[in-house]
Amino acid sequence: MASTDTVERKPAVIHDENSLKGELTPPQQGHELVEFDKKSEKKLVRRIDYRLLPILGAMYSIALIDRVNISAARISGMDRDLQLYIGDRYTICLVVFFPGYMVLEMPSNLVLRKVGTANWLAFITFAWGTVMLGQGFVKNYHALAVCRALLGAFEAGFFPGCAYLIQCWYVRLAWFYLTSVFVGGFSSILAYGLIQMEGLSGIRGWQWIFIIEGLLTIVVALGAWFLIVDFPDKAHKTGLLTEHEASFVAQRIEKDRGDAIPDALTWSTFKTHLMDLKLWAFALMFMGTTMPAYALAYFAPVIVYSMGYSIGVTHLLSAPPVIFAVIVSLIVSRLSDKFKVRAPAITFQCLICIVGLMMTAYCEGNVARYWGLFFGFAGCQGNIPTILAYQSNNIRMQSKRAVGSAMQIGFGAIGGIMGSTVFRQKDAPRYVTGLWVTAGLQLWILLLLACTTTYFMKMNKKVDKGTLVKPLEGQPGFKFTL
């Protein structure tokens, strides 16, 4: 951006220990502020959005597809070829994805800053793409389970890394996530197209799903290495921003929430952050909404197929509920941002999820049961970015964001394990037990939400009265977002 777009041209780079390392810090008291007029600020923010969101969104879309395409492959012949219908084989192949996914998230966020976002995120994407490609050549369910375990281990760092990076840039996380879900919603249609390659080169249609999507992941990973941007304090070194623009971005973040300067994540600060009960509440809420998200992703095609539709029609009918969920979630997200509240949005989406689950469980006609999937998807998928934003709005310090995002995604993996196991084969085709467990977790979210809202309101009143001994989150004037 040319300097003529700004009111003040002089960069406010503060030469402290961070700037000596090549990292920019925001202006402090006594230093000259960097100013942009509203038009220039809007252009700068839009440029950051366009550079950051498309590539991360494309990569996460592929991650979502690679994670759940096993359900499409199952109804396309894999269930019979690998004898997944025997006992709990399918459930085992789902569950083994999550242990590595859960354990490796925190270490991945620690590595992210050290090796660089482009290097790390592109590497792990390439790695899981290779595993996905290999998954197309497995001959038994044991090999499939091993591939799924490796897939979870390599995918572990991607979403928490993206959440950490995006929150540091202060870009709307909901747009990143829901755009990815929207694209991922067409995975069933893509799978339907790929199974038309049945028999080509002697390879089954379900195998082509893994092979082609694995190759696509590898190609995107190679391109991503050139496109992914680093953290705001390092962006001027990559050419994304000038030092002047980078200083303004840091100043903008510092003014809003006071954590533009990266703080070190030491063992001491790690233990301190773990003592904050808010992080545990946010993580448990996230577990409650990822459970139905995974469960519906893995079992919605099976439920639709059990209604008597053909494989082709089942693939086609699996996409509309996801697309509907994205539209509803974007509307709720926009209203939540406009009115600067999170709890009402979370409450609304929990309730429509419960309604949808009960429709699918107890309605008699296929149309009503199918519409239940629309509301079920809308509630749980919409609450994923909303609960992430709820945490992001109510904590400070980059080290705490790294710990908090990893905790949330880690508990999300627990939700994935639950979603993989409560929908038991013996409960098919209605899976009433699984649907009730899922609904119960929505009530669990509402209970936690009532606790955090009550606490936040109480502390905000103390801020208004000036009776706090210490400022909230160590930032004078900070108030919790309800």
UniProtKB/TrEMBL annotation:
Record-level GO cellular component terms: membrane
Entries under InterPro entries matching the protein: MFS (IPR011701), MFS_trans_sf (IPR036259)
Localization in the cell: Membrane
Membrane spanning stretches: 48-65, 85-104, 116-137, 143-166, 173-195, 207-228, 279-300, 312-332, 344-362, 368-390, 402-423, 435-457
Pfam families linked: MFS_1 (PF07690)
GO molecular function, one term: transmembrane transporter activity
Superkingdom, taxonomy of origin: Eukaryota
Keywords, ordered alphabetically: Membrane, Transmembrane, Transmembrane helix, Transport
Keyword match Transport: yes
Protein name per its UniProtKB record: Major facilitator superfamily (MFS) profile domain-containing protein
Membrane topology field: Multi-pass membrane protein
